[in-house]
């Protein structure tokens, strides 16, 4: 489509990208060797190509997550996280992403003896280099994990606060802390209310909040993320379209929904990109951004592919695309100064 070149050139923001979801099969195997981490013995781990073939056959969020957390096991050093972050930021910058807010799952690393400070150190080194080379900015958002006990989430959150990771500035340097707090992993049978106390504590500390909801879970989980957790953004949110009252609430509160239509197809949340309720969002005034989620696990479809797939499925006009891109900048958690530069 002739619009694809325009979509590439537009200044984009990405809000829903898991750092660990950018680990390619090739890098997974090479880090496993470098760090002497044994991989499972199944036939899908015979080679990067075999693993990639298994990724093409995910049947659900939990089927994906099992492989996703095996991927975590090869990530050990600050340098591993630097490599991952730099590769993503350089690719994103080449697709004209100007600002990225990047999720990671602290509990998936600290449980293996990898410290949050090693992750942050690697991330900051890569972000600094990418900012100088490509003028892209990047912030981290830790996500608490719903498949683990709430007490585990609470201990994780408290240790992040105690370490000062959410503080805006450190040592006089203009070095922003985490952009906010997220919640992800298994959704079914994990109602948002279980994390209410932690999210209330985050709110009282002035920490922004975003919640994965309405991916596999019902529309009422999106309503609960807003009401019980004070979510300021909703990640995925596609099943909100099944309940007009929830859609109205998203529109009324001006909440940005970070939609990942290619991810939804890969995890069987939707049969096709065209099934994504973006027309409902447009018609009802729900703001959204378009994102890649875990591109290395979803056919290597980074943000440009996502934009092009949506353009092909929906045929949005140039004016509609301008609004989508503007809403993404406005809904970012960088400074107003930075937003003005991106616009
Ligand atoms: N963690 C990484 N990707 C995720 C997704 N799509 N949903 C929930 N948790 C995730
Ligand atoms: Zn996600």
From TrEMBL:
Annotated site location: Important for catalytic activity: 236
Q: Could you state one GO biological process linked to this protein?
A: purine ribonucleoside monophosphate biosynthetic process
Record's InterPro entries? Answer: A/AMP_deam_AS, A_deaminase_dom, ADE, Ado/ade_deaminase, Metal_Hydrolase
One GO molecular-function entry: zinc ion binding
Quote the PROSITE patterns the UniProt record gives.
A_DEAMINASE (PS00485)
Q: What does this protein do?
A: Catalyzes the hydrolytic deamination of adenine to hypoxanthine. Plays an important role in the purine salvage pathway and in nitrogen catabolism.
Family to which the UniProt record says this protein belongs:
Belongs to the metallo-dependent hydrolases superfamily. Adenosine and AMP deaminases family. Adenine deaminase type 2 subfamily.
Q: What is this protein called?
A: Adenine deaminase
**Ranges for domain Adenosine deaminase:** 11-343
Record GO cellular component, one term: nucleus
Binding-site residues, Zn(2+): 16, 18, 212, 293
Q: Where does substrate bind?
A: 294
Q: How is the cofactor bound?
A: Binds 1 zinc ion per subunit.
SUPFAM superfamilies, from UniProt?
Metallo-dependent hydrolases
Localization per Swiss-Prot or TrEMBL: Cytoplasm; Nucleus
Note the Gene3D superfamilies from the entry. Metal-dependent hydrolases
Q: Which cofactor does it need?
A: Zn(2+)
Keywords assigned: Cytoplasm, Hydrolase, Metal-binding, Nucleotide metabolism, Nucleus, Zinc
Xref: HAMAP family: Adenine_deaminase (MF_01962)
* Catalytically driven reaction(s): adenine + H2O + H(+) = hypoxanthine + NH4(+)
- Source organism superkingdom: Eukaryota
Q: What is its EC number?
A: 3.5.4.2
Q: Which residues form the active site?
A: 215
**According to the UniProt record, what class of enzyme is this?**
hydrolase
């Amino acid at each position: 489509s002739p619009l694809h070149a325009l979509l590439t050139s537009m200044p984009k923001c990405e809000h829903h990208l898991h750092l660990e979801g950018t680990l390619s099969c090739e890098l997974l195997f090479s880090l496993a060797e470098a760090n002497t981490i044994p991989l499972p013995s199944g036939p899908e781990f015979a080679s990067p190509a075999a693993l990639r073939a298994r990724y093409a056959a995910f049947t659900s969020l939990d089927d994906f997550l099992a492989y996703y957390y095996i991927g975590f096991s090869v990530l050990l050093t600050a340098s591993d996280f630097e490599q991952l972050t730099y590769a993503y930021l350089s690719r994103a910058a080449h697709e004209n992403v100007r600002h990225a807010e990047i999720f990671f799952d602290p509990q998936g690393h600290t449980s293996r003896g990898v410290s949050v400070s090693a992750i942050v150190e690697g991330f900051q080194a890569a972000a600094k280099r990418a900012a100088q080379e490509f003028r892209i900015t990047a912030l981290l958002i830790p996500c608490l994990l719903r498949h683990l006990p709430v007490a585990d989430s609470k201990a994780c959150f408290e240790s992040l606060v105690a370490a000062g990771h959410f503080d805006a500035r450190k040592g006089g340097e203009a070095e922003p802390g985490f952009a906010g707090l997220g919640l992800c992993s298994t959704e079914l049978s994990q109602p948002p209310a279980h994390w209410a106390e932690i999210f209330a504590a985050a709110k009282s500390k002035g920490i922004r909040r975003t919640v994965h909801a309405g991916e596999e879970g019902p529309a009422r989980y999106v309503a609960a993320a807003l009401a019980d957790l004070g979510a300021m953004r909703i990640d995925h949110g596609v099943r909100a379209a099944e309940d007009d009252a929830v859609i109205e609430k998203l529109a009324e509160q001006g909440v940005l929904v970070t939609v990942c239509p290619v991810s939804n197809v890969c995890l069987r949340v939707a049969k096709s990109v065209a099934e994504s309720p973006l027309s409902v969002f447009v018609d009802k005034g729900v703001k959204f951004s378009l994102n890649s989620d875990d591109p290395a696990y979803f056919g290597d479809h980074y943000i440009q592919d996502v934009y092009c797939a949506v353009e092909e499925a929906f045929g949005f006009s140039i004016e509609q695309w301008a609004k989508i891109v503007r809403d993404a900048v406005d809904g970012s958690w960088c400074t107003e100064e930075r937003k003005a530069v991106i616009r």
